[in-house]
Amino acid sequence: xxxxxxxxxxxxxxxxxxxxxxxxxxxxxxxxxxxxxxxxxxxxxxxxxxxxxxxxxxxxxxxxxxxxxxxxxxxxxxxxxxxxxxxxxxxxxxxxxxxxxxxxxxxxxxxxxxxxxxxxxxxxxxxxxxxxxxxxxxxxxxxxxxxxxxxxxxxxxxxxxxxxxxxxxxxxxxxxxxxxxxxxxxxxxxxxxxxxxxxxxxxxxxxxxxxxxxxxxxxxxxxxxxxxxxxxxxxxxxxxxxxxxxxxxxxxxxxxxxxxxxxxxxxxxxxxxxxxxxxxxxxxxxxxxxxxxxxxxxxxxxxxxxxxxxxxxxxxxxxxxxxxxxxxxxxxxxxx
Length: 336
What we know:
Elements: H1 8-15, H2 19-27, H3 34-47, H4 53-60, E1 65-69, H5 78-93, E2 97-100, E3 118-122, H6 129-135, E4 141-144, E5 156-160, H7 162-175, E6 181-185, H8 191-206, E7 212-215, H9 222-233, E8 240-243, H10 249-258, E9 268-271, E10 286-289, H11 292-309, E11 316-319, E12 322-324
Parallel strand pairs: 1-2, 1-3, 3-4, 4-5, 5-11, 6-7, 6-8, 8-9, 9-10
Antiparallel strand pairs: 10-12
Pfam family, one: LacI
GO molecular function: DNA-binding transcription factor activity; transcription cis-regulatory region binding
Domain HTH lacI-type: 6-60
């Protein structure tokens, strides 16, 4: 005999609360205390209760699905796959499904999917016709980072403090003795790339340091990274290098070795996006951990908040990144 599935009534009875309070707690809505929410969630886990998505969809006229749009060519990069899994983690908690959306080559196709209740985008720009279609769809759009060129058009955003993170990284390199720090940056076209470029320019200017930067593709090839690194290492005095585009660290270390530089000794190297491989390279690579999985979860939670509250009084949330110091910047000492 198939055991009966636990119901919302069972959860409410087990937690000693009303059905309405149990529903609010399970959906993360305001109106219940933290203690009540914790008690309801604990009982739901103990009973194995899961939201009846089809029933809720009928009641709310929603599809209970979210569309996720990643930047073109990034599905093989750990940062974006981690972000996507973070979205899926949070969607599972809310009883939602996630649909990975295709990219449009032109605006004729409209929004990529009609069977979702809202969208999540990451490192998006209105130069992308697919992003423009989502913003024009009439459905809520929550972005990881601000949508470049679309001030105020997204329903809400979770933005990382890249200014503070990059400044801490540059300060770290300077404290390790670096005098001439070069930067390999992504092209202008996203809020992230603009923030990095502005922060690097301001940091070097404020300290009277040389501004040495090159721009490469958002998703660069190995040859493109190698050429940019070789170019800046030909400049006399360069003793530190920051590489921003995801996936660039292995090619950077290889190009530095070909140039006869000893990473971690006469050349410090750091990356703006941490990846699992950075702890396995030789030397290991100092990086900024953007905590992509947590960012993805935060975006999904914020989309649910938009659904519940409509227009938010505070639509922008700021997330902090952390600096992970590894062997690529550990060898030098402060200049005397």
